[in-house]
Design brief:
The protein has 442 residues and is mainly α. The chain has 22 helices and no strands. α2 packs parallel to α3 (37-45) and α3 (37-45) packs parallel to α15.
């Protein structure tokens, strides 16, 4: 009996769809990491001032604006390749575009032309955001409703594994062979998603938009996702939570590499702690997130994760106060990854369950883009200036404080029943009223 119970707990993690989520997460992390963490280190090394470094966060606004063109992925068929399926064909094409854009950014030199580097980063941002659109839709449609929590956790595992490996490997290669080579080698991280698409094929739950004329299908792809979402009860409140819940976390994340550089940590030290302590803390966090999601349900597990993610910013205030401390860096990175691991299971599972299977790509693009748009704008326009004005300690205290409204709003949504009523058909069997009897909102 004990052996059976043990296997029942492990089985969901070794099923094909959650394993596919792991591989998709690895590839999804690659372009964003090359823009966010790796480019920040590269610019700092080139002697670019902090205000310009943090302004590069505006480059990844493409991830927040991707809902503007998600309808293309939803409604436009790629000639010839469409025989492989709508999701598979788009994934293969966009993976190739991401690699081309990454190589272009690697060849740009910020010391020669900051403008050229910015244009190359924008190209990678747009390609990476489109990659995210396809990957997120493919992941959600591969998973059954009962697998959303496990799939979110495995996707988080993959994203963090990919992010840590891309960030650390690029630093190691850049130290020995230069940044151009580092960006070229990073393209290998697009392969897990490509292989997954070829092996798994088109998702069974994908509901392709049907129309008698191509223009009719495009109109449905553009209008349908918004019309369906905003017809839901409390849609504006749900959108408000999505917008504000991650402000503090997003605002703080961009400055971590600046903090490490100012405290005198070497590339090898950053790589060691990101991959070593951060990686294992993430594994533990994702596991704990899965347990919380299964034992406490969606509402309580999401609320706990929101609190932990806010408090994790305090650990970096502590590191800033300590100065160059290996133990302090290990603790800060460890707690941040632990908290993010929990949130990656609970919050992503909730956001995935919000989508309607008729418009998975477009709706999840809207949700995921909205989730960090406010924080990205603030980080790109004020983070560097705030650090220079107040110092790192007070800056991280501020990022903790601005996370409180999101926590309070979700608490109210849970108490009022709005969380349960907000679930879309991706969180059910895809039939009937998606807002009743959802297995993910118990």
């Amino acid at each position: 009996m004990a052996s059976g119970r043990w296997w029942d707990g492990v089985r969901p993690y070794v099923e094909p769809a959650p394993l596919a989520s792991l591989a998709l997460g690895i590839s999804s992390a690659f372009p964003l990491t090359m823009i966010n963490a790796t480019l920040a280190s590269r610019l700092a090394e080139a002697g670019i001032e902090k205000k310009s470094v943090t302004a590069f966060a505006l480059v990844i606004l493409a991830y927040n604006l991707k809902w503007l063109w998600a309808w293309i992925v939803e409604g436009v068929k790629i000639p010839v390749l469409h025989r492989l399926g709508q999701r598979v064909s788009w994934l293969l094409v966009v993976a190739a575009l991401v690699c081309v854009a990454a190589i272009g950014l690697g060849l740009a030199d910020p010391r020669v032309s900051l403008a050229q580097t910015a244009m190359a980063a924008i190209a990678l941002g747009i390609a990476g955001a489109t990659f995210d659109i396809v990957i997120d839709a493919y992941r959600i449609e591969l998973l059954e409703p009962r697998q959303l929590g496990v799939g979110a956790g495995m996707g988080q595992y993959g994203w963090r594994i990919g992010s840590a490996l891309v960030a650390s490997l690029s630093l190691v290669i850049a130290t020995r062979a230069g940044w151009s080579v580092a960006y070229m080698v990073s393209c290998a991280f697009a392969l897990p998603a490509v292989v997954t698409a070829l092996v798994m094929g088109e998702p069974a739950r994908h509901n392709e938009i049907t129309a008698t004329r191509p223009t009719e299908g495009i109109v449905r792809a553009v209008v349908g996702p918004f019309a369906e979402f905003f017809r839901r009860q409390g849609a504006l409140i749900i959108l408000a939570f999505i917008l504000v819940h991650k402000i503090g976390d997003t605002l703080a994340n961009l400055t971590f590499r600046l903090l490490f550089n100012d405290l005198g940590f070497t590339k090898d030290e950053i790589a060691l702690y990101d991959v070593g302590v951060g990686f294992w803390a993430l594994l533990i966090g994702v596991f704990v997130g899965g347990v919380l999601y299964a034992r406490l349900g969606m509402k309580r597990s999401v609320l706990i994760s929101l609190v932990l993610m806010a408090v994790s910013n305090l650990s970096f205030a502590g590191l800033a106060g300590l100065g160059h401390s290996n133990w302090g860096m290990a603790g800060a990175i460890g707690f941040e990854n632990f908290s993010s691991g929990i949130g990656g299971v609970t919050v992503v599972a909730y956001f995935s369950a919000l989508t309607d299977l008729r418009f998975t790509a477009a709706q999840y693009a809207l949700i995921s883009a909205a989730a960090s748009v406010v924080g990205r704008i603030l980080s790109g326009t004020t983070a560097g200036a705030l650090v220079e004005e107040f110092g790192y300690v007070d800056f991280y205290l501020l990022t903790t404080a601005v996370a409180v409204p999101g926590i309070a709003l979700f608490w109210w949504m849970a108490r009022s029943g709005l969380v349960d009523r907000s679930i879309g058909s991706a969180g059910t069997d895809g039939e009937g009223d998606a807002h009743r009897g959802s297995p993910v909102s118990s």
